[in-house]
Amino acid sequence: MEEVSRPVNPPPSDSTETTPDVGWTPIAEEAARAARLLHPKEGELPRPGRRRVLTVANQKGGVGKTTSTVNLAAALAVHGLKTLVVDLDPQGNASTALDVDHRSGTPSIYEVLIGEVTLADAAQPTEQSPNLFCVPATIDLAGAEIELVSMASRESRLKEAISSEILNEIGVDYVFIDCPPSLGLLTVNAMVAAQEVLIPIQCEYYALEGLGQLLSNIELVQQHLNRELHVSTILLTMYDGRTKLADQVTNEVRNHFGDTVLKTVIPRSVKVSEAPGYGQTVLAYDPGSRGAMSYVDAAKEIAERGAKLERGSST
Fold first, then answer.
1. What's the rounded Cα separation, in Å, for the pair 264 and 311?
2. Do 126 and 99 contact (CB within 8 A), yes or no?
3. What is the pLDDT of residue 204?
4. What does the angle CA 287 – CA 47 – CA 234 come to, to the nearest 5 degrees?
5. How far apart are CA 99 and CA 127, in angstroms?
6. For residues 214 and 186, what is the distance between their CA atoms, to the nearest angstrom?
7. Residue 309 pLDDT
8. CA 192, chain centre distance (Å)
9. Are strands 52-56 and 196-202 parallel, antiparallel or unpaired?
10. Is the pLDDT at 19 greater than 50, yes or no?
11. Which residue of 17, 36, 127, 219 is 20 to 30 Å from 277, comparing CA positions?
12. CA-CA distance, 55 to 69, in Å (whole number)?
């Protein structure tokens, strides 16, 4: 069922442009939202002072991790920022959502990790936006953790692959690394390669279960492998405004993590769930939906925060 807000009366419009005989309808409102998303009047979002590499991690499954990765990346790309998604999950869900080839034998993150191809060779353009690229995951990645154990510098294979020189060659502003729902060697590689961690947390009863272990692992990586790593962003997902529980979880997370939590929350949305089945992000599948608009708002927050942080750190 479509999740469009339906006020009894039309909102006071910027409708000086509409003719008096055309009334407000939910469909017209959604069409207007879609047009604003696909053709933003404000122009591009601010570029970060330096490239941002974010690992999207939560070992708890079903929290909207991959969904958030691809939709945030797509939202930044739509607003003019060149963005790369690295699919580090053997399930390949991010590759599916971005509709890039990830059949066995395709140059993928697996070949990148074992040193057979470069990241630039494996990166594929997507049809979602000319600014959006993806390094896919194939089924070959499923055995990568076992193979990595015996390799030299096993925790930093991805860091070596995502060098500044390679990323300059691709020319990206943002890199999102989509991790598997575990705290294994692939996730450690992602944390060593990034400066920032983005944690999606669902607004449900077990939201904080296991989060302590994730934070402990991040702290261990900070101490021993990557001193630059920090939790920069927490995104609340699957918010259901009809329940008191959603508000309780939201308040608890905000009280505990403060300004690290984005103001934007991602609502439960049928459209968000349907989009990957069509090989699309929700921004492409239904750009006027609440889910799409929420991810655009979250992406704007991320871009604006990043720009402010960079300006502040340089002074």
1. 23
2. yes
3. 86
4. 65
5. 8
6. 14
7. 64
8. 18
9. parallel
10. no
11. 36
12. 9
- How many angstroms separate the Cα of 181 from the Cα of each of 3, 184, 273, 312? 29, 9, 18, 34
The pairing of strands 132-135 and 124-125 is antiparallel
- The closest of 58, 91, 55, 54 to 200, measured between CA atoms, is 58
Helical packing angle, 26-38 and 290-314, nearest 10°:
30
- Cβ proximity of 299 and 306 under 8 Å: no
Pull the structure tokens for residue 72: 């945030």
DSSP character for 219?
H
If you ran DSSP here, which 8-state letter would residue 24 be given? -
Residue at token pair 């990034």: 194
Contact indicator for 285, 274 with CB cutoff of 8 Å: yes
Q: What is the pLDDT of residues 34-62, one digit of tens each?
A: 555 555 555 578 998 889 999 999 988 88
The predicted model scores a pTM of: 0.85
Q: How far apart are CA 75 and CA 73, in angstroms?
A: 5
